[in-house]
Amino acid sequence: MKVLVVGGGGREHAIVDALSRSPQVEKIFCAPGNAGIGRLAQCVDIKDTDVTALRDFASANGVGLTVVGPEAALAAGIVDEFRRVGLRIFGHTKSATQIESSKEFAKELMARYGVPTASYRGFSDFGEALEYVKAGSLPTVLKYDGLAAGKGVVVAETYEEAEDALRSMLLDESFGKGRVVIEEFLTGPEFSFMCFVRGNRIIPMPLAQDHKRAFDGDKGPNTGGMGAYTGLPFITDEDLEYARTNILQRTADAMVAEGRPLSGVLYGGLMKTPQGIKVIEFNARFGDPETEVVLPLLESDIADIFCWCAAMDSDTALPSADFAERATMGVVLASNGYPGAYSKGHAITLPSPLPPDVTVFHMGTKVADGALLTNGGRVLMVVATGTDLAAARHKAYDVVGQIGCPELFFRTDIAHQAL
Ligand code: AMP
Ligand code: GLY
Known about the structure:
By secondary structure, this protein is an alpha+beta fold. It is 30% helix and 27% strand. The chain is built from 12 helices and 23 strands.
């Protein structure tokens, strides 16, 4: 089978890496891909949201399965269009993707079906929103109701901060015209629980924890994620079962009941609060950088799982989905200045060969005249597996230390909540 992967970051590199281990996969294309992906797949210069060009490419090249990474492609309706012309594709329809693309849709769904989450109210009027914030307590959480590339959430510690954020979202329309959801502030450790879903059947993946802040000690601005690991000591088997049943399964059932069945990855961004586990956000796709630490543990054939999810109209049995009982951790190397302004095009040297159990996923790289260059905010993620987290951590940081590029920075405390 020929497979097309849509996207070009570390998440897609991990997907391509997992597909490359499948005996059924004879060739992988990736649009647009990156330098690391280019070693395993043929990169195709098509933008991830150019649905028409991707459809035509898949048809013309005998692609038997397309796998979608980014939410923007899902929100652009890539799955609806591929299905319309009879092409097999892994990912949710545009209407199911609303679980991520509309915060208010997700909040209403959770309220209607009893999925635990922070209490909230939605607003489109600046004055009313401000009044509501002033009548409430601090900190308060403001979320733009739409895709905002991870920048649409503000946890305001003061009324001035809240007012500035509301002004930017509702009056200046910084992310476009939209509504704002104002939420109760919750506390507790956050974790990511992803599952494959088809209709009301779910296949859970191992839990992971992201590190959203730029600097050590969870300081600095929010980023797309500076590192991740699996094996979370603060989540008990009971917690896991609670989240599986009352959050992921209940949400899959709710989406079927709403006529928007899921057919891809459901990502629960969850928090273990003193009042129990609650949903902070849902994503309609693999998390990044969580995917880079979860998929290396998959021992089963990922192509079987993707094809099972894609076959919405059949009742084929669940595919096997075995994950190794090992720990993984990964450290992101980002361009100096990220998540603010940064420069690109700096040369990177990677140790070669890499030690066993270590993979370097490329998040934002390109090759020019044979040289590997930085080409994004997050550039590389060094992922190691080990019998335990301490062993994995040792191996990962060893390789991080050997990567020659003064233009990159990284956190030195990934997995600190577990070690
Ligand atoms: P989100 O994009 O919805 O995941 O929000 C980004 C980050 O904001 C989350 O990872 C949390 O750290 C924080 N956050 C979002 N919602 C809440 C909430 N209701 N209470 C506390 N922190 C929150
Ligand atoms: N790691 C958070 C996300 O993928 O949205």
